[in-house]
Specification:
mainly alpha; globular
Length: about 80
């Protein structure tokens, strides 16, 4: 949740670096949702967190392994 707050600047200054740090902390707890959100952060990209479609796919696949309930198609259609 903290990551999303920093991504959008809700109640805190918008800070993609902090958003990435917080979501990585959540992935260390093996949160499928956190892995999905990290994938989205890498798919979208920011100047501070460069776009990385390959890392995004790795995150999405880890989310699936951890039981992320997803829509189809998943991962999202990517222009790699």
């Amino acid at each position: 949740m903290l990551s999303l707050l920093y991504q959008g600047g809700y109640g805190v200054p918008q800070d993609p670096d902090s958003a990435e740090r917080w979501v990585i902390r959540a992935t260390e707890q093996q949160s499928a949702l956190a892995w999905n959100n990290l994938g989205t952060l890498y798919l979208i990209g920011w100047p501070e967190v460069p776009r990385n479609p390959e890392k995004a796919v790795e995150c999405y696949l880890r989310a699936i392994e951890l039981g992320f309930d997803r829509a189809s198609p998943y991962p999202p259609l990517l222009d790699l």
